[in-house]
Amino acid sequence: MNSEKLSQRLEKVSNYVLQGSVLADIGSDHAYLPCYLGLNKKIKKGIAGEITEGPYLSAKEQVVLDGLSDIIEVRKGDGLSVLKENEAEVVTICGMGGSLITSILEKGKGKLGNTKRLVLQPNVGAKTVRKWLLKENWILSAEEIIKEDGKIYEILVADRSGEYPYSNNNIEAELLFGPFLLKVQNEAFKEKWAGEVKQWKAILSQMEKSQGTAAETKRKELLDNINLAEEWID
């Protein structure tokens, strides 16, 4: 992967970045995504945010190599703290857990006043991200699930306005599996959830002798998830 040819995962993410927008890519690593978008003249400006020294320096080097210093700026800092208020029109956060993504968004939501779209790619915990988006009145507008190099990735796209994606009677299933993904149920989706159900059942069997409130809460959560999967997944 490089700034001229992205991984399938990041290429899918790039498709959802609005044409001519100011992009902030948080946790940008080598800045491949903003550089790719800059090279393809899809963004007006890019901000690559990175908290770790090594990736920060790699991102700076990549921007110079691609001759994009006039439109892409690499900034070092934690999450959305690298942004000025109302600066980014599109924010991408990829390759982290859902809890970390929501923590970054929650801490920095004051910076999102001018943001029209979020493109988020949680490695795990997509339900946590969907719940945060719902709570904060972001409209989930698209989802994708793909398998690449033996790993399964979900991509969530949220806009400020649009059609509400959840149905009142199925919201628990839709938050867990994704309202758009649940409708299509492609091979990657089925493989992911077959694996999850197998894991949940294994954990349940290990917990047979566990006692106490925490164990009971966990047991109920696992059973609820298994029941949802058996009810909703083809």
Please tag this protein with its features.
single chain, 234 residues, alpha/beta, Rossmann fold, seven-stranded mixed sheet, 9 helices, 7 strands, elongated
Summed up:
The protein has helices at residues 8-15, 32-39, 53-65, 98-107, 126-135, 171-177, 179-184, 187-206, 213-232; strands at residues 21-26, 43-50, 72-76, 90-96, 117-122, 139-148, 151-159. It is an alpha/beta fold. Helix 4 packs parallel to helix 5 and helix 8 packs antiparallel against helix 9 (213-232).
Topology-level CATH name of the largest domain:
Rossmann fold
What is the share of helical residues?
Answer: 40-55%
The whole-angstrom Rg is 19 Å
CATH class of the largest domain: Alpha Beta
Mean residue pLDDT: 96
- Quick one: CATH superfamily of the largest domain? Vaccinia Virus protein VP39
Please, how many helices?
A: 9
Major sheet characteristics: 7 strands, mixed
Strand content: 15-25%
Query: Would you count the extended β strands for me?
Result: 7
Q: SSE order, as H and E?
A: HEHEHEEHEHEEHHHH
SSE class: alpha/beta
The N- and C-terminal alpha carbons lie at a distance of 35 Å
CATH architecture title of the largest domain: 3-Layer(aba) Sandwich
Described by the principal axes of the CA atoms, the overall outline is elongated
pLDDT under 50 segments (min length 5)? Answer: none
Question: Could you say how many structural domains there are in total?
Answer: 2
Q: In order across it, which strands form the biggest sheet? A: 3-2-1-4-5-7-6
